[in-house]
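Slide 14.
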Amino acid sequence: MNNTPISIVLADDEHLIRGALAALLDLEDDFQLVAEVDNGTDALAAARDHSPTVCVLDLEMSPTDGVDAATSILWEIDTRIVMVTRHARPGVLRRALAAGVKGFVPKSTPSEKLAEVIRTVAGGARYVDPDIAASALTGMDCPLTERELHVLRASTEHDTLAQTAGALHLAPGTVRNYVSAAMAKLGASSRQQAAHRAWEEGWI
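Slide 15: predicted structure.
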């Protein structure tokens, strides 16, 4: 029988949530919390230092979100990732699974269930909360045209629409029209908001 504890790095930028999770994880005899941090950069550093069995990451950390942090960690460290989130749009779930995340659960998950998920993932299996999985399957179809998506994606790489137009070799008015159409379809008040919504849904 393997008595080696499951070592865990915990990352969440909400101090109360992180403290509560840490206290709950410490109650499990087969868990060893080796580090708790409040951002993705420190999560990567902690993973390098401790080579944990599992990293439990908050999806909504800033400035680097949990998926980007997971991608960086898994690039360097042989570990498994459990992502916790208040909400998960379909595109975010797809990005997380593509990055190699093995567990995806809401923050409302009871502590006993979270411990079970961590053990499942530590054992090499995958667990995605059924409600989150269902939302991914029923996610809305993209209402944007290919050209609108292309222009919106390009606009995230430049400060102004004029710069985007130059990069795409299009007239500024044409780029403005595509971005305006995308904003209208997505109910967004700015191109940044429209791009973020499209990113969350996994369209760009």
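Speaker note: The longest strand covers residues 31-37.
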